[in-house]
Amino acid sequence: MSLAHKAIPLDLLKFKESLNLTKKAGKLYVLDPIRKKLIVMQPEEMVRQLMICYFIQETDFTRNSIQVEKTLRINDLSRRFDIVIYDKQVMPYLLIECKAYGVAISQSVFDQIAVYNMRLNAPFLLVSNGLATYCARMNHETKAYEFLDVIPKGY
To answer: Hey, what long-range contacts does 104-113 have (CB within 8 A, 24 or more apart)?
Structure first.
């Protein structure tokens, strides 16, 4: 099952040249510009790193406003979000879930990020597998979201 809403056109591969790649002991690593450490390049990590490049290069968000792979507790369970972008008041603004290329973005994937967001209360949600990208505005009163045709590029 895929989402009924049309995906937002976003060519993440155009940021591939921005990745700082290195090979060690036969494994490919990428230097994460936010965490400032080498990360083993897995398919989902590729999407996450390309998404970080997009937000650094194409939006008004600063590196300091981006946080990557942090753990939060939901109903006594540890959950890890991929990326969160904070606003100028250091409140969660955009919660991002990255999937590997080829992993379908289904309604259940979007519902998963909405559950994570119950703790963070970010006004915007984004899910991408590098090929299909969906963004939504969250209505916290009704616990519903509406899909957008664009990605927020600033506060």
So the answer is: 104/1, 104/2, 104/129, 105/2, 105/3, 105/7, 105/129, 105/132, 105/134, 106/1, 106/2, 106/3, 107/1, 107/3, 108/1, 110/3, 110/134, 110/136, 110/145, 113/81
Tens of each residue's pLDDT in the chain, 155 residues: 356 788 999 999 999 999 999 999 999 999 999 999 999 999 999 999 999 999 999 999 999 999 998 777 777 777 788 999 999 999 999 999 999 998 999 888 888 888 888 889 999 999 999 999 999 999 888 888 899 999 998 87
Number of domains in the chain: 1
CA neighbours closer than 13 Å in the CB half-sphere of residue 29: 12
CATH of the domain at 39: 3.90.1570
For residue 102, being part of any structural domain is answered with yes
Q: Provide the domain limits for residue 96.
A: 12-148
